[in-house]
Amino acid sequence: MKKRYYRRPHRYRKKRSFFRKRFFWLGILAFGFFVVIFYCLFFPAAFQVEKIIVTGEEKVAKQDIEFLVEQRLENKILFLKTRSIFAVDTGQIKKDILNLFPQIAALEVKRGFFDAINVVVVERQGVAQWCGEEGCFLLDNTGVIFEEVLKIKPGLILVDASQPESVSLGDRVVDEGSLAQIFDIQSKLTDHTNLSIVEAILVSEERLNMETTEGWQIYFNRKGDLDWQITELALILEKQISPEKRDRLEYIDLRFSRVFYK
Fold this sequence. Notes:
- The protein has two domains: about 45-125, membrane protein fhac (Ubiquitin-like (UB roll)), CATH 3.10.20; about 130-260, 3-Layer(aba) Sandwich (Rossmann fold).
- Helices cover about 30% and strands about 25% of the residues.
- It is built from five helices and 14 strands.
- The longest helix is centred in the first third of the chain and has 21 residues, at about 20-40.
- It is elongated and about 80 Å long.
């Protein structure tokens, strides 16, 4: 007798509605949460920049900095305009200010409390002067020219270096190491000889000429022992060249193992 096999009847489950699926409503909830956060960050009046606070400026007009920052505040997000403090590109504002105002050595652009942008300015300080074909300029301690002067200012040493074909405010015309060496020698000369310097001439990588207020020059070997050179200078002035003879002095050459003067 043959065995009979019976197939169990197939049961069809009723499909759940798409709108009843959990992930759909979780997605809707997440999207709504994102929209609320997005709106709260970029469009409420409480977060719209209303104040630009500039401090530390002296030579640069505060109004000029404020105007530049003002031009960078408005942004578009999804075709909507906003001045939200969270949308402000502080890095770009800093770069633009430094490019436009060579008088500024450094600055910090910070978001203030809700509706303010704070700009803290550190301006360059003139420590020397440099003259070229385009005129005379103030130098900061890094060798950058940042302000034109109509005439040489007394009290600031004039640095004469090889001249580039053309210069613009913000260019470095003297390397920082050479400038530091000039000031070091100037300080030691004051301490050991009471000499004052009006001009420093960077003749080459090995030679530096300095002109004194008395009208004669000192030739230094930049690669040599500067302390020894200054000590020898002090001895020559003390023992061989009296103050009465200095009005006929042209130079003292300290570049060699012996000291020469004329």
